Amino acid sequence: MKMMAFTMRSCEKLFRALFCLMALLLAAQPLQALEISVSEPQLSANEEGYNLAADFNINFNSRLEEAVRRGVVLYFTVNFELNRTRWYMFNEQVAKKSKTFQLSYHALTRQYRLSTGVLHLSFVTLEEALRILSRLRNWQVLDKGAVSTDQSYQAGLRMYLDLAQMPKTFQVSALANKDWNISSDWVRWKFTPSEFSELPMPVSTIPDSPSTVPMPGSAVPVAGDAK
Description:
This protein is of the alpha+beta class. The protein is 22% helix and 35% strand. It has four helices and nine strands; from the N terminus they run αββαββββαββαβ. The strands form two sheets. Strands 6-5-4-3-8-9 form a six-stranded antiparallel sheet. Strands 1-2-7 form a three-stranded antiparallel sheet. A hairpin with a 7-residue loop joins strand 3 (74-84) and strand 4. The longest helix is centred in the N-terminal third of the chain and has 27 residues, at 2-28. It is elongated.
């Protein structure tokens, strides 16, 4: 009996020591930040409906940078959704949109390319391409009449590295590596169409520093670069 009690006390002390060690190890590790964050999303009214603009902070790690330089095409997908909140049942989804940007490197021209649909831009450095990717502008997400001015809605936005669009043989290894699983949380905000019931009058002005590069979502193609 004494031997059994001694063994139980020893096991109890061992478990306590292991528990304290695990707690110390967890506390010593820093909290992992989101690889992509969304800031300042907003909808603006136009004659056709509503455009979306937002900024993204993309933590582009060295593994992704090396993959792009080796010829791997990365797909970044942006999801937008609009829901009508209802207290008596589940929310009603009013609209859902997706836009995918392809980031690639062309060794022949030594340029990075950012594409969406039939539009594409070329850059000398990866930093320039990521700066444009992080600024979403003029994305038409809602048509005129899709929402009612007497209703309030909840808009949502997120961005993630879309591994599903990559080759199947590549997905297996990428899914098991945390460096490839980068995404943002859903960012949601209240949208009230009545605040945009009257569109501002257009003002003819010359900008002080006009942008020479179209932003993602813009309908302005790059001349001489299409294939």
